[in-house]
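Students often ask why inverse folding is considered easier than folding. One informal answer: many sequences map to the same fold, so there is more than one right answer. In these notes we will look at a single instance of the problem. The structure comes first.
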């Protein structure tokens, strides 16, 4: 409102009047002096200020609503809540308090199924606690997590074991569809026994039923990060959300996921097996590769996600957040001593990584699956990168089917979310043998090479030591459009290693030498000749690679190259999509 006061008023008096009126009338006030055309003082009411004559209060109607909300927030039957501590679990509302200590921004669908279960409804049977279905057992909404806005869903295990039914499914779908519109990450806090079989006509096969979950997961995939944390045995349909998510964290001794329960497995196959052996955290972390990480408990799961999101943008097309640079945990000066001269002697590639990346920035995914390759997020001078590194301590760093699959999926995810890639190549190539052929080494190796070929993010490749066979192809070799290929002086690039080459080319000639000593001398000569032929100096001389880098300068080299190529633009052929993944 506008207020005009006498000519003799001072500026301080005008400000005092403006402030007092704004507070008293709960409105904006502009004060003019005399006939002046411009205000000399302005004031806004404090956020919590209401007019002094406003003595209206909430009615019984609002009080009743608040009581209903409080009842809903209580969750399912008390006897089920009392069992949660035995399983090491938090009640879902307490879980949300752990994840979002500042509270939720809002929640959607608290009153789902309200008419069918609330005490005022004649349908409720007080003697049957299964008729208490607050929120239909599934919570959805929005919250701020470590400074980032996101959508969330969480199963309430006290409501029919977190099972899915019509109204809960509708809430889940609506949350996913809103994420497609907002471009904000999605957090799934899963603890569900699957669909309610006795109510399947309302949600199973419908166009907007549970099947639409996975359609929406597919639409969200690569658009916004989807992170899933498992808190219990997720069976059948419920088990697909974790595997559709970009990142899946299971809780040790608590989580499990499987296409069918142990009881169903026994009925179908006759096999007797425990839930943990069938689909527990360790099985999925070590054998199926479906779990990216295993948490010790609920608090640890939150810590892991808190670290994870520091490498991820909110949505595709945005750059990942950068942080303050830190020097490496260990000095780069030790890199050359770390790498053995012999291509067959092992060393732990984690030690190399810790001499390249910022201290305390290594965040490894699937550490217990496909161990021949390390896939880890890290930061170089504050910039998030995804590292694909051969691990010489595990079967000499040869690429086995599981490792190839793991690397392909990691590269694909990094590319989706604009995370630059660093390849640290030290491999004898793809493993040979009847078992790996049965395990689909060609199919999974193809996916690895395809992911490397199709990634359009900045890519840097380091030939650390051996780069033999098709291993150099999958590991971002010169033909695969990396922005740079640099090598350490220990590097070698060839169709195969010296031992295999000598056996393949000179076996008959060597066998013709009767004197063992003479034969060994000739073997050593041929080995050295071959190593000279594949040495990186020769490759650099022929400009196959871009540079040979002093090992102690490798970090600085990578800092400069990632910075220079941060805005590089790459394109793929104009097509619908490839057929490999």
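Output (designed amino acids):
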């Amino acid at each position: 409102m506008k207020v005009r006061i006498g000519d003799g008023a001072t500026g301080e008096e005008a400000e005092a009047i403006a402030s007092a009126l704004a507070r008293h009338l709960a409105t904006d006030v502009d004060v003019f002096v005399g006939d002046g055309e411009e205000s000399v003082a302005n004031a806004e009411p404090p956020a919590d200020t209401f007019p002094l004559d406003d003595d209206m209060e909430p009615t019984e109607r609002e009080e009743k609503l608040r009581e209903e909300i409080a009842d809903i927030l209580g969750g399912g039957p008390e006897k089920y809540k009392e069992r949660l501590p035995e399983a090491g679990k938090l009640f879902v509302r307490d879980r949300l308090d752990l994840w979002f200590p500042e509270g939720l921004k809002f929640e959607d669908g608290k009153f789902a199924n309200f008419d069918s279960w609330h005490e005022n409804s004649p349908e409720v049977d007080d003697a049957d606690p299964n008729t208490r279905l607050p929120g239909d057992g599934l919570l959805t909404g929005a919250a701020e997590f470590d400074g980032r806005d996101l959508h969330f869903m969480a199963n309430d295990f006290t409501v029919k074991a977190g099972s899915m039914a019509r109204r809960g499914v509708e809430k889940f779908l609506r949350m996913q569809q809103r994420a497609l519109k907002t471009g904000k990450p999605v957090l799934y806090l899963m603890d569900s026994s699957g669909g309610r079989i006795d109510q399947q006509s309302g949600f199973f096969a419908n166009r907007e039923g549970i099947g639409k979950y996975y359609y929406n997961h597919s639409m969200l995939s690569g658009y916004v990060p989807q992170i899933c944390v498992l808190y219990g045995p997720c069976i059948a349909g419920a088990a697909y959300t974790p595997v559709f998510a970009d990142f899946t964290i299971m809780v040790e001794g608590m989580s499990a996921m499987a296409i069918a329960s142990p009881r169903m497995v026994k009925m179908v196959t006759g096999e007797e097996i425990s839930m943990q052996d069938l689909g527990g955290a360790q099985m999925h972390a070590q054998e199926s590769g479906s779990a990216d990480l295993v948490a010790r408990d609920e608090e640890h799961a939150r810590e892991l996600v808190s670290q994870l999101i520091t490498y991820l943008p909110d949505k595709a097309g945005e750059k990942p957040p950068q942080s303050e640079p830190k020097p490496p945990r260990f000095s780069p000066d030790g890199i050359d001593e770390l790498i053995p001269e012999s291509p067959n002697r092992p060393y732990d590639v984690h030690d190399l990584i810790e001499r390249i990346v910022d201290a305390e920035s290594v965040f490894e995914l699937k550490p217990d699956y496909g161990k021949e390759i390390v896939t880890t997020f890290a930061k170089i001078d504050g910039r998030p990168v995804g590292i694909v590194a051969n691990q010489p301590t595990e079967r000499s760093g040869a690429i086995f089917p599981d490792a190839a699959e793991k690397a392909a999926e990691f590269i694909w995810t990094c590319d989706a979310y604009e995370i630059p890639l660093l390849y640290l190549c030290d491999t004898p190539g793809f493993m040979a043998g009847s078992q790996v052929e049965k395990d689909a080494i060609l199919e999974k190796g193809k996916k690895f090479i395809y992911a490397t070929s199709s990634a359009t993010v900045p890519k840097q490749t380091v030939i650390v030591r051996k780069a033999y066979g098709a291993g150099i192809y999958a590991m971002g070799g010169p033909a695969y459009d990396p922005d740079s290929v640099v090598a350490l002086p220990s590097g070698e690039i060839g169709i195969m290693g010296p031992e295999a080459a000598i056996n393949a080319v000179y076996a008959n000639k060597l066998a013709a030498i009767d004197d063992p000593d003479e034969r060994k001398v000739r073997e050593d000569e041929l080995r050295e000749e071959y190593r000279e032929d594949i040495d990186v100096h020769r490759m650099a001389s022929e400009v196959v690679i871009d540079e040979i880098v002093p090992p102690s300068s490798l970090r600085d080299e990578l800092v400069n190259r990632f910075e220079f190529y941060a805005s590089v633009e790459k394109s793929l052929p104009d097509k619908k999509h490839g057929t490999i993944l």
